[in-house]
Amino acid sequence: MSLLAVNELSKYFGGVKALDGVSFAVDQGEITGLIGPNGAGKTTCFNLISGLLAPTGGEVTLLGENLGSLAPYYRARRGLARTFQNIQLFGGMNVLENVLTGCHQHQEVGALRALWPGAGVRRAEARAREQARELLELVGLAEKEDFPAEALAYGEQRRLEIARALAQEPRLLLLDEPAAGLNSRETEDLMALLQELRARGITLLIIEHDMTLIMGLCQRVVVLDHGQVIAAGPPAAIRRDPRVIEAYLGREEDDGDL
Predict the structure, then answer these.
(1) Among positive and negative, which fits the CA dihedral 131, 137, 140, 145?
(2) Distance CA 115, CA 70 (A)
(3) What pLDDT is attached to residue 120?
(4) How far, in Å, CA of 2 to CA of 64, rounded?
(5) Hey, which residues does 107 pair with through a beta bridge?
(6) CA distance linking residue 198 with residue 18, whole number of Å
(7) Mean pLDDT of the chain
(8) Which of 67, 84, 64, 88 is nearest to 76 (CA)?
(9) How many CB atoms lie within 10 A of CB 173?
(10) DSSP letter string over the chain?
(11) Does domain 1-79+170-258 have CATH number 3.65.10.20?
(12) Given a cut of 80, is residue 151 above it in pLDDT?
């Protein structure tokens, strides 16, 4: 059974078919790339998978469970986390506090216990801080836990957003253009981090325009164009697929060679 299955997923905005009958699967323990020219429907697909948008048709299943109309919070509780193309950190919080917001969704603390915290609540908070610090160590931000999130460099903010998503303990992590705006060294570091996440058993679905990252990391690539899947398979086959070459030709000169 696939970890994630997208079945005939569609989203119409009036007469515009942003996504039109898209189907693909993501196998557990793999890194899958979701690519395509601008406007192909990639982020719309992520928004449907994560519950930010309701589909016009089709379904999304996670470990065989139809997610239906579940809100993003409940999908996160079932093991689905994501980052965004535009970084969305809590600017009024420091680095550690941003990661703690992800940890806290697993704490079962009622309102009264939060107002009058006992030993159990304090232990849960201590565990969350330990987990958050371990994740900051993983992404290379351990020495900046007290920094305001907005004071971080752009590439560091990208890594902080990944750490916050990991704090939700996801089975499946959706990454929306994680290499956008990074220099070559930062991209290499990101690729090493994503390989480490896979080694730790986290399944990844990545939207990305950096073809070096996609071709170097992914076991499988799904290609969208005009809201439809035009190709799916291993990177070597995608690189040679004439439909993919045609879709990219002359559209995105900065995408790199397929």
Answers:
(1) positive
(2) 29
(3) 60
(4) 8
(5) none
(6) 30
(7) 90
(8) 67
(9) 24
(10) --SEEEEEEEEEETTEEEEEEEEEEE-TT-EEEEE-STTSSHHHHHHHHHTSS--SEEEEEETTEE-TT--HHHHHHTTEEE--SS----TTSBHHHHHHHHHGGG----HHHHHS--HHHHHHHHHHHHHHHHHHHHTT-GGGTTSBGGGS-HHHHHHHHHHHHHTT--SEEEEESTTTT--HHHHHHHHHHHHHHHHTT-EEEEE-S-HHHHHHH-SEEEEEETTEEEEEE-HHHHHH-HHHHHHHTTT-GGG---
(11) no
(12) yes
Q: Which residue has the higher pLDDT, 38 or 126?
A: 38
Here the tokens at position 253 are 């000169």
The Cα 220–Cα 90 span in angstroms is: 33
Structure confidence at residue 88 as a pLDDT band (50, 70, 90): confident
pLDDT, residue 127, reads 87
CA dist 36 to 39, 43, 242, Å? 8, 11, 14
pLDDT at 175: 97
Task: Check whether 186 has a pLDDT greater than 60.
Answer: yes
Residue 117: predicted pLDDT: 57
pLDDT in tens, 37-87: 999 999 999 999 999 999 999 999 999 999 998 999 999 999 999 999 888
